[in-house]
Design brief:
168 residues; alpha/beta; Immunoglobulin-like; three-stranded mixed sheet; 3 helices
Length: 168
């Protein structure tokens, strides 16, 4: 029983000693680097990360930002399929644009990242099309308050890869 207690006490001592040294350093560093920019990001920049894989799904279906914020969208293709088989992009449509009609027109716009030239005015922002393991970003000012739709315009993807972009 004494040996078990001694082993437990020594283990607790080392765990406490090891954690205190790294916890103090890590906590101070984390607090300094994550909290201050996060407060600033809340008011000036809305950073949104979207992940999409070979399962043809965005991991986020609603995005909330504030009017006037700079919006920075990072799209990560978490799958392995090449761009020709499973390309993904992010397209934010203007108010009143029919998502299904846009997606139908996008099928023929392969050379323009699946953004139909005739409908370019209907797009607030979009990323380039990427394949498995790639990432891309787009930065733009948030539009006026309202509800907008976003999608992946790669052929056939918009049925599952779409969401709501809400500006408060």
């Amino acid at each position: 029983m004494k040996k078990l207690f001694l082993v437990f006490a020594i283990g607790a001592f080392f765990a406490t000693a090891c954690n205190n040294g790294s916890k103090t350093e890590g906590t101070e560093t984390e607090t300094t680097t994550t909290e201050a920019p996060a407060a600033e990001a809340d008011s000036k920049v809305a950073e949104v990360v979207l992940n999409a894989g070979d399962d043809m799904k965005f991991d986020v279906s609603e995005i909330y930002v504030k009017e006037g914020q700079t919006v920075k969208i990072t799209l990560n293709h978490t799958g392995v399929a090449p761009i020709t088989a499973m390309g993904h992009n992010f397209v934010l449509l203007a108010t009143g644009v029919n998502l299904d009609n846009f997606a139908k027109e996008a099928i023929n716009a392969k050379d323009n990242d699946y953004i139909p030239t005739a409908m370019a005015k209907d797009v607030i922002a979009h990323t380039k099309t990427i394949g498995g393991g790639e990432s891309t970003q787009v930065e733009f000012p948030a539009p006026a308050k309202g509800t907008y739709e976003f999608l992946c315009s790669f052929p056939g993807h918009s049925a599952m890869m779409k969401g709501t972009f809400i500006v408060e």
